[in-house]
Design goal:
This protein is an all-alpha fold. The chain has a domain of 74 residues. It contains four helices and no strands. Helix 3 packs antiparallel against helix 4.
Length: 110
Amino acid sequence: MNKNDDLKPFKIGDMMYKPKREPTSKKEELKLSFPFLEKLLEMGEEEVNAFLKRCENTCINLDNMLKKAKDEDDTLYFQSILTAYGHSLYLFNQLLEEKFKRAEEKEEEK
């Protein structure tokens, strides 16, 4: 078995079977927040595009490092980082689509 076989593409629902962690208290359950993501979703189109451009440049740099990797451990390391970036950007895109969909629905209600 090749170590690269462990890096399968992420599919929606993959985390469906992860055991749920029981919160220790009601307060803890309500404290989930993602301030960076929330701030990012509140930004305008120009700021979001600048953020996405930085992410794209980071991915290009990681891809270049991946191509220059000297051993299998480095290859797996850079591949896993690129995969994580891909998952994050995919989810961010889904959130943006939902944001714009809700904004359109609000406009239609007026």
